[in-house]
Amino acid sequence: MNGRAIVILDDPDLPAMAALTEGGRLIDLLIDPPEDDPTPRPGAIHMARVTRLAPAMGAVFVDLGEGREGFLKGVKGLRAGDWLAVQISRHAEPGKAVPVSAEPLFKGRYAIVTPHAPGLNVARKIRDPEERARLTRIAQEALERAGLSAGLVVRTAAEGAAEAEIAEDVEELAALARLVEGAPADAPAELVAAPDAEVLAWRDWVDPEPERVLRGDSGLFDDLGLLDQIEALLSPRVPLPGGAWMTIEPTAAMVCVDVNTGADFSPASALKANLAALEDLPRQLRLRGLGGQITVDAAPCSKRDRPKLEAALKRALKSDPVETTVAGWTPLGNLELLRKRERRPIAELLRAPLERTARGRGRR
């Protein structure tokens, strides 16, 4: 399948998911957890009660309901028993409280409403003065109709979009913001649910716009070669050109990446393998849902090659939506990254369902 496409999976035997492909290659993957999974999901907004203070860390712990605990930093003046609305910031490491923010954002396809950050801004990528003025007017009028005094960011996807669609998006976001703003302390624990995979795909996979959107069951995913690509993500080994490979293995402390040249012992083999690995690493981490500390044990190479490797990695990260910092090289010659935990590891969500589906297709 040529071009850029979104493929939505609708199959009772598998979790709902959305796949982004380019030329048939899997670029991104969003997976919904089971409906009965209590794990807090990034983007959800909860009414939370402060349970205990952690002044040494400048933080408090909050009760998110159903026995779930959140960790809130940088907010002063709170006392045990206080209620406030918080938004899940990211996934937590196993056994740890979930990081939350006391400044919820309301994100749509065309706009982001920011109640705690006043002002109206248009994405810098939109440079045409007339278009910027049009979008500013649409956003201002929509906020006024919604009766909301809040900040707003007009997203890049709004460029050229119909006025009615942009206004509708802003008004829906404003309605959610008003709901949270007026929620009483005894409101249901989850005020605003996290968007599901299909909504996230519609909202975020817009630059560039996909050429087609397909929907089907596992048969469609199989016909497009997506099931094989997704199953491969459950293996730590990632093939690279020329017989090289890398392994990506999460541990309790970090994600370890090991690059190997395979049977190629030519002088340039290590550099080629390392470049290929680092160019594909952001995609692999994104698809596997891995974050936190990432340590790359590169194939042996000289220090003069390190700038080339860092440049290749940073180029690949430019198109990656997950916040990642390249920390640099350790004294032992490993390359370290710090990556936001925006997603659940794919192994937690898919291993059992995919194995059942594979057996049903007679492939194992």
UniProtKB/TrEMBL annotation:
Superkingdom as given in the UniProt entry: Bacteria
BP term (GO), one: rRNA processing
Cofactor(s) this protein requires: Mg(2+)
Keyword hit for Calcium: no
GO terms for cellular component: cytoplasm
Family annotation (SUPFAM superfamilies): Nucleic acid-binding proteins
GO terms for MF: hydrolase activity; metal ion binding; RNA binding; RNA nuclease activity
Pfam families in the record: RNase_E_G (PF10150)
Keywords, ordered alphabetically: Hydrolase, Magnesium, Metal-binding, RNA-binding
Chain segments annotated as coiled-coil in the UniProt record: none
Protein name, entry field: Ribonuclease, Rne/Rng family
Organism: Oceanicella actignis
